[in-house]
Every structure is written in structure tokens, then in C-alpha cells.
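Risk mitigation, structural track. In case the binding assays with 1,3-dihydroxyacetonephosphate fail to produce interpretable data, a predicted complex structure has been prepared as a fallback.
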Amino acid sequence: MRKPIIAGNWKMNKTASEAKAFAEAVKNNIPSNTQVDSVIGSPALFLQELMASSKGTELKIAAQNCYSENAGAFTGETSPAALADLGVQYVIIGHSERREYFHESDADINKKAHAIFANGMTPIFCCGETLETYEAGQTAEWIENQITAGLVGLSNEQVASMVIAYEPIWAIGTGKSADATIADEICGVVRNTVAKLYGKEVSDRVRIQYGGSVKPENIAEYMAKENVDGALVGGASLEPASFLALLEGVK
Ligand SMILES: O=C(CO)COP(=O)(O)O
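Fallback model:
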């Protein structure tokens, strides 16, 4: 049985005081982590504050990115070793916004995945296709390629323990969600790709999220699907009441 995981991705939103107020508002209302892993992915600037505010509670904290080296002359980058030292558990990598606006390649993302595991954290690895690829009927091939390249060299145990988020680019922030049937089908493609590369035992364990215009009103439809183990949520994770409602939708 795979434990559900709901992760908010705040993207580049909030100030430190707003991040702290959010954590204070939600931290005592997070469901037990025997039911669901509840995660907030924050800008690096607020991670230390969020770690302090959420200490001893069921709220887990993710970074939205990191570099693939632990230290050195990499101006402006965030060290995975420093994230691990803060107690951060998850790092989102390969988000379509980073691939598109910051030109991250599959190889860059793969190096980050290795660095995250080397520091004892868990990657939330994002994949997803454009509307053009979707309409051309090439989604499955696209997703297989992103996963194959992004996970190169990881061990079976590492892949089994990670989280893979399927986020169709055409459904991100557009209000146009892939319906639950499509989400389940493509999350199934993700799982089959993992099975082909790492075997069935690994693909039965890896957790797969759907992301793209998930809201409290539609979360239950996604969670009811066989291949969907959780959600990666942007806009609807920004307000405490909405984030808590997403978690309620899983219970
Ligand atoms: O990109 C996303 C999460 O990483 C999805 O964003 P929205 O939930 O705002 O569509």
C-alpha cells in the first residue's frame, strides 16, 4: 500500500512573514502522517523559518530546487548538503518551469537526483508534456524519455523511495486540469516505464503524483485512481484553508 503524498509547490510566492503565518495556521491541523505525507515546497529563503515553525509537527518541508554539487564556486545556487543540514526532506526537481525558463536538461536533473539522494533527501521528480505533444498523441513516448534520462544510474531502492510527479504543462495554472481518467492513464505510463527499467517490485512502491490545477473540489477524483498516489499543487496550496482542504480530501 502506497502512502498518499500531497505536496504544495508555492513557486515564487510569499514573503518570510507570510510563510511563517501559513505554517502557524496549518501546523496543528495536519493529518497524521500514517494517513498522508503533507509537504510544503517553499522558496529556499523561507526554508529555515519553515523548519523551525513546523518542528515536532506532521508538516514536512520541501525545497523547490537545488544544485548538483554540495559546495564551490556556483554563485546563486543552493547546496543540497545545506538543505539536508536544515532538515529539509524533499526537493522538487525537473519542474517544467525550471526546464523551460532556466533551461535545465534531463542530464542536469539527473545529477540533482543523485545529489539529493547522496544527502539523504528524497526527490520529487517532475515530468510532463506540452499541449502540442499531447495533441500529437506523443505523451507516452515523451514521458518515457524524460523518466529514462532523468533516473539514469539510480539504484532500485532509490527509485522505489522517490516521488514522481506527472504534470502536463497544459494543465499548470491554466484551470484546465487533465481529467482523472487521463491523469490515471499517464501516471500508469510512468509506473510502466519504471517497471520496464527497474522491475515490478520498484514500480509497485514508487509514489506517483498528478499535478495541474488540482483543487480541494477535484482532489478526491484523482486520489480514487489506481495509479495516482498524490498531488503536486500550485495555486491551491497557497492559502492555509485550501491546503488543509486538500489534505482532508485524501483521508
Ligand atoms: O505546477 C504545479 C505544481 O508544481 C501545478 O500548479 P497549479 O496547481 O497552480 O496548476
